Amino acid sequence: MGDEKRELPPVPDRLPVAVVDAHTHLDACGAVTAADVTAMVDRAERAGVARVVTVADDLAAARWAAEAATWDPRVFAAVAIHPTRTKEFGEAEKSEVERLAGQDRVVAVGETGLDYYWDYSPHDAQQEAFRWHIDLAKRLDKPLMIHDREAHDDVLRILAEEGAPNAVIFHCFSGGAEMARKCVDAGYVLSFAGTVTFKNAKGLHEAARLCPAGQYLVETDAPFLTPHPFRGRPNEPFGAAYTVRHLAALRGEAVHEVAESVRTTAERVYRLPSVTTG
């Protein structure tokens, strides 16, 4: 059992329609070189996950993500400073994030937001950094990718106070039906990770059912949050295919309908070139 827990799950059958993993961390999955990235995305494509957005949470990861997005046409990037790392977020860090975020293969500003679960950065420092990232997304006209952990009210309040960018993605959406309705009414996009497949995530199941087509995405947040029944094992972008099938069952829809919605929404929000075949 110990060895199994360290192994990747099997690559699932190919989805009938190609989808996008809206949020992953290829570096944290173990990718270092262009060959590593290609191997991971090849595995994803075998499952029908044709493109990925690899996401940074500090400056080193941001530089790597922006570079990795130039190694394979199926890879795009998002850059920001994670809220838990905002204790020291000065002009040098802001300048570098802004430089990287302006690159063509960087399709979103993120992940940014608020994290009140971990006690790594003071709330006021997180909120100041969040406001700066909101402004950056608006200046660059790129989507804002939000990390929201036990901070729903403050995240929504600050978005309202600052004025949200044209596109807002709640990465690894963690709220229930009430939070989902507020986000949907505001025009935000909810991104569902492997947590939506967990049997005890009742509030998240309700949120997934009420979210209309065009306002939800699927992500892995790999190497974390591996979908059921492989919870606790390492994750990779191909795991998004498991989540798509679970989401279809939750919503009472055909897999191809959910996959098509995920694909078209990702293409619209991230402004990706269209992939029309599975």
TrEMBL record:
<dbReference type="GO" id="GO:0016787">
    <property type="term" value="F:hydrolase activity"/>
</dbReference>
<protein>
    <submittedName>
        <fullName>TatD family hydrolase</fullName>
    </submittedName>
</protein>
<keyword id="KW-0378">Hydrolase</keyword>
<keyword id="KW-0479">Metal-binding</keyword>
<dbReference type="InterPro" id="IPR001130">
    <property type="entry name" value="TatD-like"/>
</dbReference>
<dbReference type="InterPro" id="IPR015991">
    <property type="entry name" value="TatD/YcfH-like"/>
</dbReference>
<dbReference type="InterPro" id="IPR032466">
    <property type="entry name" value="Metal_Hydrolase"/>
</dbReference>
<dbReference type="Pfam" id="PF01026">
    <property type="entry name" value="TatD_DNase"/>
</dbReference>
<dbReference type="InterPro" id="IPR018228">
    <property type="entry name" value="DNase_TatD-rel_CS"/>
</dbReference>
